[in-house]
Amino acid sequence: MNEPKKLASEREAREVAEAAREKDWEHASFARGLFDGRVELGLIQPLMARAGAEEEGADAFLERVHAFARDHIDGDRIDREGHVPDEVLRGLAELGCFGIKIPKEYGGLGFSQTTYNRALEIVASRCGATGAFLSAHQSIGVPQPLMMFGTDEQKQRYLPRLAAGALSAFALTEPDVGSDPANVSTEAVPSEDGTHWILNGEKLWTTNGPRAELMVVMARTPAAPGKKRKPISAFIVEADWPGVEVAHTCDFMGLKGLSNGVLHFTNVRVPKENLLWGEGMGLKLALITLNTGRLALPAFCAAAGKGCTEISRDWAARRVQWGQPIGKHDAIAQKVGRMAADTFAMNAIVALTSAMADAKTFDIRLEAAIAKMWNSERAWDVVNDALQVRGGRGYETAESLARRGDEPVPVERWLRDLRINLIFEGSSEIMRLFIAREAVDHHLEVAGDMVDARAPMGKRVAAALRAGLYYAWWYPTRWMGWGRWPRYAEFGSNATHMRYVDRASRRLARSLFYCMMRFGGGLERRQAVLGRVVDIGAELFAMAASCAYAEKRVQDDPSDTSPRELADAFCRLARLRVEERFRHVFRNADAGTYRVAQRAMEGRYVWLEEGVVRVTESLTERPETPAPTGARTGAPVGAA
Fold first, then answer.
1. Which residues partner with 199 through β-bridges?
2. Are 61 and 95 in contact (CB under 8 A)?
3. 319-343 burial, b if ≥16 CB within 10 A, otherwise e?
4. pLDDT (tens digit, 9 = 90+) per residue, 79-102?
5. Which residues lie below 8 Å from residue 323, measured CB to CB, with a gap of 6+?
6. Catalytic residue numbers?
7. CA 37, CA 442: separation in Å to the nearest integer?
8. What was the pLDDT predicted at 18?
C-alpha cells in the first residue's frame, strides 16, 4: 500500500505563497489606490482615451479571424464530438493566432494585449473550447513566460516554433496541488554529469497537455545548502521526449472540446539550458505570468455577455405572452437591462486592463485579479438570466432545437462552458484572498508587527509608535474629501457616480483599517469578511472603468450618448451591491454559519441526509478503463 503523502502545514503553505509574492510596487496601480481611499483618475483617463486603438495591420488581422471563425468554427459540432478539429487549429495557426503577441523578430505578429483580447473574443464567441486552446497556449503557456524570463538562446529556439503553431501548455496543478503550491511533489534533480535535469512526477488538469508539443513544467529542485525547503523551478519540456506520457484525457461538463489531461513524467532528461529564469524562481514566474495571463478570461466573459445580450433582447422583443412582448413585462425587462449594463461594464474592464498591460507602466496584479474574478461572476449571472429569458428554449440543446425546426441558439452550451471560469486560473475564493492580501499590504507594512502575536515585544512596541504617527495623518484624510468633487464634472451625467466612488473608496479604506484593528493577526482567517471588502473594491473598480469608458465612447462619437445610459444603469445597480456589502462587513452571520459547517463535517447532521439513496451507496466499483499506451491524441498543430 502506498504511504499517504505528507502535506504541508498551514504555516508552511502560507510561507511558500508569501515567499513567491512580488513584494515591491515599483509601478502604479489604480486598484491599490481604491483600497487605500485614493481615486487616481490621472492613471486611467489617458489610458481609456486610447483604449481600443489598434496597431497597423491589426484591423485587417481581426477581420480575417472573424471570417475564419464564422466560416470554420462550429461550436455545437465541437461540443457534440468533444474535439477541436486539427484543421481548425492549423487554420488559426496559419492566420498567426498562435503568435499574436510574440515579437515579429521571432515569427509572431507582435500585436498588443488589446488586439490579442479582441481576437480571443471573436474565437470564443463561436466556441469556448477553441478560445481556450489559444489562451492556454499564449496567456499561461510557454510563450508568455518565455518572452518575460527566457534567455536569448531559449527565445531563438522556441518562439518561432510556438508562433508557427506548436501548441503549448503550463503544468503546475497536481492531485494535491490546486491553489496551494506548497504541496508540489514533482521533482527535478541534476544528472550525474550535470548536463541534464531528471524530471519525475505527475501533473493534473493540464490544459492543452494531451495535444501540446511544448510545456512549462513546475518541479521541486534540490534545496540550497543550509536550507530545508526544496524550491520550485520552471522547465521547458518537449512532449515527444522519452518519459513524457499522457496518462488520461479528462472530460468536463462544459468546454467539451478542451484538451486537458493527466501527464506523467518518468526520468525525463531535461537539458540544463531548459531551466527558465533560474533555480527556485518557478513559483514567482507562475504568479507574474498570471498577472497578464488572467486578462484572457475577462475577454471571454465579455464575449459571452455580448452574445447573451444579443439573443435575449431579440427574443424579449419578439416573444409575445399575455398580449405583449415578454420584454415589456417588468420581470424580464429587469433581466435584459441588467444584462446590457453588466456587459457594458465587462467590456469597460477588458478595455482598461488591456490598455494597462500595453502601457507597461502599471503593476496590474490587482487589476488582473479583479477583472478575472468580477467578469467571470458577472458573466455567470448574465448567462443564467439569458437562459431564463429564453425559458425552455434556453434549457434545450441547440441540436434538439434544430431537429424540430426552431432556432438553434446554444444558451445551454454557453452556460456549461462559462461555469469553469469561476475556477480556472484561480477560483473566485482564491482571487478574493489574493486581492485581500495585496489590499492590506500597505497596512501590514505600517502596522504588521503590531498585530502579529509572534513578533517580539520590542518590534510590536516600535510598530505601534510608527503606526500611531502614520494613522494620525492617514485616518482623518480618509474622512475628508475637500477639493475632490469638482474633478468629476468631466464625467457629465455620471459625475455623481464618480463622486460616490470617491466617498466609497475612502469608506472602504477605513473599513480595512477597522478590520486590521478588530481582528489583528486573525484577519487572514476571516475570509467571508475579507471577501465583502474585496467585492466592494471590485465594484468600485468596475464603476470607475465604466464611467471612463462611457466618456471615451461619447468623445469618439458625440452623437451617441447611449454609453452614458449604460454606465448610469450599471452604476446604480453596483451601488446597491456596494451598500449591501458595507452593511455586512461586521454585522453578519459568519460565525454561526462556520459552526454549522464544522459540525456538518463532524457528522452531527447525518440525519438530514436520510430518505434518499446516499451518493456513497451509488459509487459502486466499476471495471477499470485500460490506461493509454502513451500515444498522443491528435497530430501536433504544426505537423503536416
1. 188, 268
2. yes
3. eeeeeebbbeeeebeebbbbbbbbb
4. 999 999 999 999 999 999 999 999
5. none
6. 425
7. 12
8. 65
Q: Residue written as cell 422583443?
A: 317
Return the ∠ at Cα 578 (arms to 573 and 580), rounded to 5°.
100
Q: How many CB atoms lie within 10 A of CB 248?
A: 17
Average pLDDT over every residue of 465-484: 82
Long-range contacts of range 151-158, CB-CB < 8 Å, 24 or more positions apart? Answer: 151/273, 153/273, 154/236, 154/273, 154/274, 154/276, 155/106, 156/106, 158/214, 158/236
Q: Which residues contact 569 (CB under 8 A, 6 or more apart)?
A: 337, 340, 341
- Can you spell out the DSSP letters for 497-519? HHHHHHHHHHHHHHHHHHHHHHH
Q: How far apart are CA 190 and CA 196, in angstroms?
A: 6
Of 362-376, 574-588, 603-617, the range with the lowest mean pLDDT is: 603-617
- What residue type is assigned to position 143 of the chain? P
Phi, psi of 228 (to 5 degrees): -95, -40
The pLDDT score that the predictor gives to residue 639 is: 37
| DSSP symbol at 536 | H
User: Where are any strands of DSSP class E within 316-454?
Assistant: 320-321, 324-325
Q: Read off the pLDDT of each residue in 239-265 and give the average, rounded to a whole number.
A: 97
Kindly state the cell numbers that stand for 636: 501536433
| For residue 629, pLDDT beyond 70 | no
Q: Is 276 helix (H, G, I), strand (E, B) or coil?
A: strand
Look at strands 214-220 and 168-171 and give their pairing. Answer: parallel
Nearest to 567 by CA among 472, 495, 486: 495
Query: What's the rounded Cα separation, in Å, for the pair 458 and 538?
Result: 37
Angle at 364 between CA 475 and CA 507, to 5 degrees: 25
Nearest to 336 by CA among 320, 314, 318: 314
C-alpha cell at 553: 465612447
Are residues 274 and 315 in contact, defined by beta-carbon separation less than 8 angstroms? Answer: no
Model confidence at 621: pLDDT above 90: no
Confirm if 184 and 177 have CB atoms less than 8 A apart.
yes
Cα–Cα distance, 310 to 174 (Å, whole number): 40
Beta strands 275-276 and 232-238, pairing class: antiparallel
For residue 631, the SS3 value is coil
549 Cα distance to chain centroid: 21
Are 311 and 335 in contact by the 8 Å Cβ rule? The answer is: no
| E runs forming strands in 221-372 | 232-238, 244-249, 260-271, 275-276, 320-321, 324-325
Cβ within 8 Å of residue 301, ≥6 positions away: 346, 375, 376, 378, 379, 418, 421
Q: Which three cell numbers stand for residue 605?
A: 447532521
**For residue 391, how many other CB atoms are within 10 A of its CB?**
14
Q: What whole-number distance in Å separates Cα of residue 388 and Cα of residue 592? A: 33
Return all residues near 145 (Cβ < 8 A) that are at least 6 apart: 170, 216, 234, 276, 277, 285, 286, 289
pTM passes above 0.85? yes
Separation of alpha carbons 274 and 237, rounded Å:
7
Half-sphere exposure in the Cβ direction for 492 (13 Å, CA): 16
The pLDDT value recorded for residue 459 is: 83
Check pLDDT > 90 for residue 485. Answer: no
Give the DSSP letter of residue 150: -
Contacts of 422 (CB under 8 A, 6+ apart): 376, 377, 380, 428
Q: How far is CA 370 from CA 81, 296, 421, 437, in A?
A: 34, 13, 13, 13
Nearest CA among 529, 521, 364 for reference residue 454: 521
How far is Cα 34 from Cα 473, in angstroms, rounded to an integer?
18
User: How far apart are the C-alpha atoms of 264 and 243, rounded to whole Å?
Assistant: 8
